[in-house]
Amino acid sequence: MVDVLSQNEIDALLAALSSGEMDAEELKKEDTQKKIRSYEFKRAVRFSKDHIRSLTRIHENFARYLTTYFSAQLRTFVQISVVQVEQLPYDEFIRSIPKMTILNIFEAEPLEGRMVMEVHPNVAYAMLDRMLGGQGVAPSKINALTEIETIIMERIFSRTFESLQEAWKTIVDISPRLEALETNPQFMQIVSPNETIALISLSTKIGDTTGMINLCIPHVVIEPIMPRLSVHHWFVSQKKTRAPEEVEVLKQRVSKAKLPIVAELGQSSISIREFLGLAVGDVIALNKPIGQGLDLKVGDKLKFIGSPGSVKDRLAVQIDEVVSEGVEDDYDE
């Protein structure tokens, strides 16, 4: 980034040059000297800042979907948010996670290769305890998973990939599926140790239990779609209009939606004492005369005026007048 000097700094610099305290030729030499920056080949930079920002946006949506999913499944307070998105060698990721953890290895067609969703044991066992009827508390000592616990874990986390699919839909349509569930990182080698990965860290809180969910995405897996992670692609995709087929499908689904319709005979106000004293045969006077039409409300909005009647021994209402068909609501600015 280019430093912008204030007016006071410019005046001080000109004063120093005019007084001889600074030499203009020496300043030119400093600018022409080559600036050397160290570069570590084991930590190759494969993701630009633009890519990191796009991955952050995608997985912020993923975190919101996960929060909704786990809250419904576990029926307790769940909060998930993106803490950090960084790039590092795969070997460094393996060394940073616990020796005993939950590793969900999955593929996402049409992308080629495998990815990993690592769930900290505190979080995973809190979910397991909650699913089995507990309070959602992680045990003090983490043991190996039994066969029943493994099956429950696979069912819990296999459905999280539906949320991942929804979060990535703006970039590419993927079909993630769980390939295997491991507990020892040493037995999991999805890419070479020096391969650069994108590590998305999600802070997870379930009740009083906190931990991390880490999503490991190797660069080689998403390299074919890297151009779509640019800001330009995001703007272009947002401007796309719906295809006629999508609009027609949307219309068909909306036309099948069910809405409550209420025929209101009238209204009346009585005291609590009068309400408690009501008995069979009592008459409550309404605020409408008999000859006035009934108010037909769709949801809570008045749409029609009708007349009471019957059809085949069933109560019915005949629509006599349309009140506000096609009229949009006016909102005060």
UniProtKB/TrEMBL annotation:
Pfam families for this protein: FliM (PF02154), FliMN_C (PF01052)
Keywords: Bacterial flagellum, Cell membrane, Cell projection, Chemotaxis, Cilium, Coiled coil, Flagellar rotation, Flagellum, Membrane
Domain of life: Bacteria
Domain Flagellar motor switch protein FliN-like C-terminal, chain residue ranges per copy: 252-323
Main location (coarse class): other
A cellular component term, taken from the record's GO annotations: bacterial-type flagellum basal body
Topology relative to the membrane: Peripheral membrane protein
InterPro entries tied to this protein: CheC-like_sf (IPR028976), Flag_FliM (IPR001689), FliN-like_C (IPR001543), SpoA-like_sf (IPR036429)
GO biological process: bacterial-type flagellum-dependent swarming motility; positive chemotaxis
Keyword Cell membrane found: yes
Coiled coil (UniProt feature): 10-42
Signal peptide: none
Cell compartment(s), UniProt: Bacterial flagellum basal body; Cell membrane
GO molecular function: cytoskeletal motor activity
Family designation: Belongs to the FliM family.
PANTHER family, per database record: FLAGELLAR MOTOR SWITCH PROTEIN FLIM, YOP PROTEINS TRANSLOCATION PROTEIN Q
Protein name per Swiss-Prot or TrEMBL: Flagellar motor switch protein FliM
Organism from which the protein derives: Paenibacillus nasutitermitis
